[in-house]
């Protein structure tokens, strides 16, 4: 069955235009489809709470949305180019399974606030994961410092030996850096911790939605009150997240670069486990040739 777009007005658009507009974004939408379902479950419960849906209707919608989440986890839910995005694919699935009830899930919503809340939920989960991993890295560094911190090292300026240093001083530099990165990640997390659901396409909804209820259901600390700003925050919040993540990557890059340098035979300050290293194909060939020549 051909997918029906949420904006469908009774006519088809040029195929090349459709290909250009859709691109491959529909494949990326698989990343946020679960979160769109989670937000839709909260929305369905709220619609029942304010009398738009019956409890039975809400229950059916929630059950089907949970089925989609399971299908996504199993890699069995498909989003096609014709769907354009996960929102359409999910609503089409609901309509196919539940008939006209499936269309009621869109009551009081726009794809604008749908994608906003899905991205917030996706970002929140992954930012928390980044914070957790960063804390584990600090724990590993603290263990390393406790074991080897007393060892003296030369401090370098422009790759020239400059002043006495130590493993502790070197390690502490990166512990401080990652702690600052965690502060940036937490700041980004605090910024996105506001629910845009119910802001529609930027001017709210004529239906008196219970936004406080959906915010609580989705574990947001507050609602994003102004519907115009909810749309203006698109890109702004994501840029803040990317900045925080780029700082994490900057420090990981510095740690990696220094380990590469200090594990070189010319320095030999650190040694990586063999299972962390590969080798050189040409050196392996020469090693084999040398072995054969002497045998």
Order of strands, main sheet, comes to: 1-2
For the sheet with most strands, the description reads:
2 strands, antiparallel
How many distinct folded domains?
Answer: 2
Low-confidence runs: none
Q: How many strands in all? A: 4
The CATH class assignment of the largest domain is: Mainly Alpha
**DSSP summary: helix tally:** 12
Taking Cα atoms only, what radius of gyration do you get, to the nearest Å? 27 Å
Described by the principal axes of the CA atoms, the overall outline is elongated
Percentage of residues in strands:
5-15%
Describe the 3D structure.
The chain has a two-stranded antiparallel ribbon with strand order 1-2. It has a two-stranded parallel sheet with strand order 3-4. Helix 3 (33-49) crosses helix 9 and helix 7 packs antiparallel against helix 8. The protein has helices at residues 15-22, 25-28, 33-49, 55-73, 86-98, 100-103, 111-148, 167-192, 211-217, 227-232, 236-262, 281-294; strands spanning 152-157, 160-166, 194-195, 222-223. The mean pLDDT is 92. The chain starts with 14 loop residues before the first helix and ends with a helix. A hairpin with a 2-residue loop joins strand 1 and strand 2. It folds into 2 domains: 15-107, Fumarase C, Chain B, domain 1 (Orthogonal Bundle); 113-286, Up-down Bundle (Fumarase C, Chain A, domain 2). With 295 residues, it is mainly alpha-helical.
């Amino acid at each position: 069955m051909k997918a029906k777009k949420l904006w469908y007005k009774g006519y088809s658009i040029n195929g090349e235009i459709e290909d250009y507009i859709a691109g491959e974004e529909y494949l990326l939408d698989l990343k946020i489809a679960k979160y769109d379902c989670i937000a839709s479950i909260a929305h369905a419960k709220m619609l029942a709470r304010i009398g738009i849906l019956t409890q039975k209707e809400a229950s059916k919608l929630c059950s089907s949305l949970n089925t989609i989440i399971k299908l996504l986890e199993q890699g069995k839910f498909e989003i096609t180019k014709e769907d354009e995005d996960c929102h359409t694919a999910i609503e089409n699935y609901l309509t196919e399974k539940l008939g006209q009830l499936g269309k009621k899930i869109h009551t009081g919503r726009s794809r604008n606030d749908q994608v906003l809340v899905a991205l917030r939920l996706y970002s929140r989960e992954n930012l928390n994961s980044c914070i957790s991993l960063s804390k584990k890295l600090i724990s590993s560094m603290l263990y390393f410092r406790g074991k080897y911190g007393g060892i003296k090292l030369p401090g370098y300026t422009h790759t020239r030996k400059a002043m006495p240093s130590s493993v502790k001083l070197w390690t502490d530099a990166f512990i401080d850096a990652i702690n600052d990165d965690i502060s940036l990640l937490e700041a980004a997390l605090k910024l996105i911790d506001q629910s845009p659901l119910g802001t529609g396409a930027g001017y709210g909804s004529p239906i008196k939605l219970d936004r406080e209820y959906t915010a609580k259901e989705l574990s947001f600390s507050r609602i994003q009150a102004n519907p115009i700003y909810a749309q203006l925050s698109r890109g702004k919040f994501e840029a803040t997240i990317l900045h925080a993540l780029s700082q994490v990557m900057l420090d990981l890059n510095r740690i990696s670069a220094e380990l590469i340098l200090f594990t070189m035979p010319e320095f030999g300050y650190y040694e990586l486990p063999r299972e962390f290293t590969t080798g050189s194909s040409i050196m392996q060939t020469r090693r084999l040739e040398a072995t054969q020549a002497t045998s």
